[in-house]
Amino acid sequence: MRSSLKLLVFVAFFVSPFCYTQEKQKPTVFITTDDKPEDKKVYEGRGLFSQFSGAIYFVGNKNAGKRIEGSDDTESAFLPDGLKAHAGFGAHLKEWTGISVNGGIDYQINPKLVFTPVYGTVFLNPHFGMDSSFVLEAGYGWAFALGRGDLSGFYQKYRLGYMNSDRISIFIEYNQMGFTYNDYKLVGGISIGLSIYNFL
Question: 150 to each of 84, 110, 144, 145, how far by Cα in Å?
Answer without folding.
Answer: 21, 20, 8, 8
